[in-house]
Amino acid sequence: MKPKRRRETFVCPHCGAEVPLGALSCKECGSDAETGWAQDADVWEAGIPAGYGSDDDFDYDEFVARELPESATVSSGAILRRWAWRITVLFLCLALLRYLWHPL
């Protein structure tokens, strides 16, 4: 039985995947010599759309407070509809119990 040959690999500087030495491109992200991968590359310089990179002005807590308010307002009509459904279900349950205890 032949001993297994140890595969020599390096880490893709773009995505961090292990790439066999001599590979023409990374099987995970597709980076190759034309797109700028090199052994000495240390940062992925992909064309990321604006708004997705590091933004020093972005305040996460402010974003959460603005987009997800703690006390979301519910219209009075919605509250009335909820109570109407609850009362309707309660009466139906009472009618069912009365029927089960005293059938016609």
Low-confidence stretches: none
Q: Widest sheet: strand order?
A: 1-2
**Terminus-to-terminus distance:** 86 Å
What Rg is obtained from the alpha carbons, in whole angstroms? Answer: 32 Å
Question: Could you give a short account of the major beta sheet?
Answer: 2 strands, antiparallel
Oligomer: single chain
Shape label: elongated
Beta-strand share of residues: 5-15%
Structure classification: mainly alpha
Mean pLDDT: 76
Give the tally of β-strands.
Answer: 2
Order of helices and strands: EEHH
Number of helices: 2
Explain what the structure shows:
It is a single chain. By secondary structure, this protein is mainly alpha-helical. Among the domains are: 8-47, no CATH class; 75-104. Helix content is 33%, strand content 6%. The protein contains two helices and two strands; from the N terminus they run ββαα. It has a two-stranded antiparallel sheet. A hairpin with a 6-residue loop joins β1 and β2. The radius of gyration is 32 Å and the shape is elongated. The N and C termini lie far apart (86 Å). 7% of the residues are buried. The model has no long low-confidence stretch (mean pLDDT 76).
